[in-house]
Amino acid sequence: MTQGAGQGPVVRTATLRDFRVPPYAQVPVQSESASHEYVLAHPEDSVPRAVPREAGESSARPATAAEAPHRVADAPGTEHGDTRAAPARPEDSVPQAPPEHPGDAFPDDEPPEGYTPTERDLPVINRGDTVQVTVAPAEQPAPAAEGLGPLYVVGDVHGYLDELVAALTAQGLVDAEGRWSAGNTRLWFLGDFTDRGPDGIGVIDLVMRLSAEAAAAGGYCKALMGNHELLLIGAKRFGDTPVNSGAGTATFQAAWLLNGGQKSDMDRLQDVHLQWMSRLDAVVEEDGHLLMHSDTTAYLDYGTTIEDVNDNVHEIINRNDADECWDLFRKFTKRFAFRDDDGPQAVRELLAAYGGGRVVHGHSPIPYLLGEVGTEDADGEGNSEPLVEGPHVYADGLAIAMDGGVTMAGKLLVAQLPLQA
């Protein structure tokens, strides 16, 4: 069964085009020439297609679980930056799954004609103009405010709860039971908590709980909004309501399924999760690092200051207009603004507007930027050595990529800033 229908084992998938819509969801169906004209008009929204595999060849492998505590899924009513204490027992707040979500797009457990899941393997971009380097920042980050601990960032998680707990444990941020153990440390998640992996709601519950525990210990755990948060909010709120995609009429529900939406996540999605996601900021500055989810300059469309961007994004979500939310989602899916020859200048535009000496982002997996993808052996197991060992510094040392490609045999990255040379 296709991914997103919730009928088969969870497999790792990857983004081909975060807002592409299958033919059955387009009204009217676009001609080939019309689609070609849109691609020409919006090249930044397109990603080359993956090379098809030979018949019978598997492109997915089962998700692996780290040997670390998991399912730490307390769901306290904490908000972004909230300091209220978490419940004493996780089982007190486990959300109850509804029998079936009314927006389920698969009647009779069969996918609509024309629906295709996202493919796991990413397109290979053998550019040759990006390299993995470790360099000192162009400008030394400002020292942390008195009383605040070290600064850490987390790349895209995409539902891989076990891998997240293992990575946080390895950095000493949580203990053997998955509880905050880092005192006054500051931790920022860069967005994309759900879709593609097996337990997106469990990831959100963990981050919400850690927010309360960190605040009680004198630190904090906060999160930014990614394009998949916008996608999940839209799928829940608007379902199959048509939206003007710029290349025909699409729906959030179809786009969510196409991009790894998990029915189990939708069944467990509660109002507290929606409220928490809706209040996440889009961009922040910490210790001279400009933190954002997407490697795009589209943030400049929403304001010339950090405060303006976050206020405008929140207002759009609160206005609950499907077309306006779709446009926001579409812009946040853009990528690779910092990768080409003019990438350093694009980074400088953002830094000039919002401050900081370096941009730190997720969204675009590092194997994309390096022109590498994972391979599988005959048994379907990934390489013993991951392609990604750490963050990728590029664009003349002005940008740091943090999406290690956990959905494609990569690595879920947790790193302390500033990076050590």
TrEMBL record:
Residues 150-366 form the Calcineurin-like phosphoesterase domain. This is Serine/threonine protein phosphatase. One of its GO terms (molecular function) is hydrolase activity. InterPro entries: Calcineurin-like_PHP (IPR004843), Metallo-depent_PP-like (IPR029052), Ser/Thr-sp_prot-phosphatase (IPR006186). It comes from the Bacteria. Residues 42-56, 68-83 have a biased composition (Basic and acidic residues). Pfam families: Metallophos. Residues 1-126 are annotated as: Disordered.
